[in-house]
Design a protein that fits this description.
5-stranded parallel β-sheet, alpha/beta, Rossmann fold, 456 residues, 4 domains, Helicase, Ruva Protein, domain 3
């Protein structure tokens, strides 16, 4: 028990009997624990919005919200937080039923101090990171995740728990929220930490190239395949493979990925031989995959293969308490990068950052701070610098249709270059019929003959 006492776990005690509340606090403080006291379940919920204890001890019968309703709320929103219920003899059957629903344990009043402390130790053994918050926040596996948000701490707790095994993880989150950062943290907290971490963006690679990128190919598999090529599954052997933006993976490739996950072996493009692979899969997406399944864009069987555990990274607008922390962290890093001496943000500038909508999340915040550091000439970053940087960010964000049109034209140009303007070959490479391919060329005002001339 010495190790647990030294780490000073924080325990939230909830009871409307102030005498019992004080008695519990004295006993637990004397045993080396830190305590927070709440005289009602409602006050306890307010406390949990701000900070996270490692354990909750609550009376069963209280005025207003009772201990069972408090537990149900905690179990629904913070399922990794253990709860011990205090109960009178008349409510023992209720307490027993509560343990079947997920309550860690119960104690009858009047309680024996030794039994109380023993049960507290048992509960805390299930909780990752029972060290002081400062020490826990410096754990190597999570060193790149800057946060003081209780919501983020809950997700980090789940991430540390899931890292202990090899279960597939599906990470949801908006663009720029930090999905890849969390995937890397899970890898670093796992037994695979000394093996490769490999990431691929499934939306950034054309369908006909993505299969080769994932599974590899053999010499002669297709035009341009002049040598054997190892795929990312092989490069990640023994480690972790992040399939970023998995919701954008084409359906034909989803079938092949499902087979790899089921059989734990890959077959390079053009090969008749299979290669066994030992890789932990983490997937990430900004899409609602259940909606994609309902529209036929994503396979349900693959979804359940990938989503053994799901984590949802909150948008920056949902954890505004992290904005000053992140902004100052980025300022420190970027001042060192650009050899600038800027001491911080003016109060008005920081208020602008905290109030902003942040559609681009943490990535957008870093871009804003970087622009301010590059252009800053004063000891403090001013509201004017913040405003100008935000205006440029908004101007630089094109519409979805414009982005799609740009990508489509760029893709067509690349295909025509590869085939030297041969429309038949280009249409085959793009897996489109000639008529449809010609319409695409006309839409983007592309003349195949120019690409033929460029080869002469």
């Amino acid at each position: 028990m010495q190790k647990i006492i030294e780490s000073n776990p924080k325990i939230l005690i909830v009871d409307d009997d102030t005498d019992l509340l004080e008695l519990l606090s004295i006993r637990l403080t004397a045993a080396g624990y830190k305590t927070e006291l709440a005289q009602s379940a409602e006050i306890a919920l307010n406390y949990l919005d701000v900070s996270r204890p490692q354990l909750v001890i609550s009376d069963m019968q209280m005025s207003g919200m009772d201990g069972m309703k408090l537990f149900e709320h905690i179990h629904r929103t913070i399922p990794t937080l253990p709860v011990i219920i205090l109960t009178a003899h008349g409510t023992i059957p209720d307490a027993v039923a509560a343990t079947q629903r997920g309550v860690f344990g119960y104690l009858t009043k009047p309680f024996d101090s030794k039994i109380l402390l023993a049960q507290v130790v048992q509960a805390l053994r299930l909780v990752p990171g029972t060290a002081l918050q400062k020490e826990e926040s410096q754990a190597p596996w999570r060193k790149d995740i800057i946060t003081q948000s209780a919501m983020m701490e809950d997700i980090l707790t789940k991430a540390e728990l899931v890292a202990k095994g090899d279960a597939s993880v599906l990470i949801y989150g908006e663009s720029g929220a930090g999905k890849e950062l969390f995937a890397h943290a899970i890898h670093d907290a796992s037994k695979r930490r000394d093996r490769p971490f490999v990431a691929v963006n499934c939306a950034a690679i054309p369908e006909q190239l993505l299969e080769s990128e994932l599974f590899g190919h053999v010499k002669g598999a297709f035009t341009g395949a002049v040598r054997d090529h190892k795929g990312l599954f092989q490069l990640a052997e023994g480690g972790t493979l992040l399939l970023d933006e998995i919701g954008d993976m084409p359906l034909p490739l989803q079938v092949k990925l499902l087979r790899v996950l089921q059989e734990r072996q890959v077959r390079p493009v053009g090969s008749v031989q299979t290669i066994p692979v030992d890789v932990r899969i983490i997937s990430a997406t900004h899409r609602d995959l259940l909606t994609e399944i309902s529209t036929g864009s994503f396979r349900e069987d693959l979804y359940y293969r990938l989503k053994v555990v799901a984590l949802t990274i909150p948008a920056l607008s949902q954890r505004r308490e992290d904005i000053p922390l992140l902004a100052n962290h980025f300022l420190s890093v970027l001042c060192a990068k650009y050899d600038k001496e800027i001491n911080g943000f003016s109060p008005d500038a920081m208020e602008m950052l905290v109030r902003a909508s942040w559609p681009g999340n943490v990535r957008q915040l870093m871009n804003i701070v970087e622009q301010c550091v590059v252009l800053g000439t004063a000891p403090l970053i001013s509201p004017v610098l913040i405003y100008d940087a935000m205006q440029k960010e908004e101007e630089g964000l094109v519409s979805f249709e414009d982005a799609r049109r740009h990508f489509e034209r760029d893709y067509l140009v690349r295909v025509l270059k590869i085939t030297a303007g041969n429309v038949t070959k280009a249409a085959g490479l793009a897996k489109r019929n000639r008529t449809e391919f010609y319409k695409l060329l006309q839409r983007h005002q592309l003349d195949p003959s120019i690409f033929k001339q460029s080869q002469n």
